[in-house]
């Protein structure tokens, strides 16, 4: 009996506890993008402070990093943006895509107007 209990406990410990592959709550119902696919960056921003994400929908940002912004979430007063972060040396680290608070960056280079309103989908907030 003790052996079965120990085996069950061991299997439980090995189960994944991360948020990967899990649907997370939506942050917004709509987003503003440069095009209907949100495939063109709206602007380039520079991080003015470090940001450590609370869950897998968000990306970590270090002060001074450049962020390519692809979408601005609409429902909550543009509090969150979506974009990709590249390390200071291209190729040193693969780009990460996710959300971050707009308050931790400053706009440095406007690229295209964010004039297209697009509905968010569950995939916008899915953890990979």
From TrEMBL:
Keywords from the UniProt entry: SH3 domain, Signal
Cross-referenced InterPro entries: MIA, SH3-like_dom_sf, SH3_domain
Superkingdom of origin organism: Eukaryota
Name the UniProt record assigns to this protein: SH3 domain-containing protein
One GO BP: extracellular matrix organization
Residue span, SH3 domain: 40-110
Record's signal peptide: 1-20
Top-level taxonomy: Eukaryota, Metazoa, Chordata, Craniata, Vertebrata
Signal among keywords: yes
């Amino acid at each position: 009996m003790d052996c079965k209990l120990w085996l069950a406990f061991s299997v439980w410990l090995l189960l994944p506890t991360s948020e990967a592959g899990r649907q997370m709550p939506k942050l917004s119902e709509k987003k503003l993008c440069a095009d209907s696919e949100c495939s063109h960056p709206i602007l380039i921003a520079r991080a003015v402070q470090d940001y450590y994400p609370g869950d897998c929908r968000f990306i970590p940002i270090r002060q001074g990093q450049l962020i390519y912004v692809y979408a601005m979430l609409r429902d909550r007063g543009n509090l969150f943006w979506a974009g990709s972060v590249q390390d200071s040396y291209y190729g040193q680290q693969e780009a990460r895509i996710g959300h971050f608070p707009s308050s931790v960056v400053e706009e440095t280079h406007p690229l295209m107007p964010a004039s297209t309103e697009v509905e968010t989908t569950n995939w916008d907030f899915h953890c990979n």
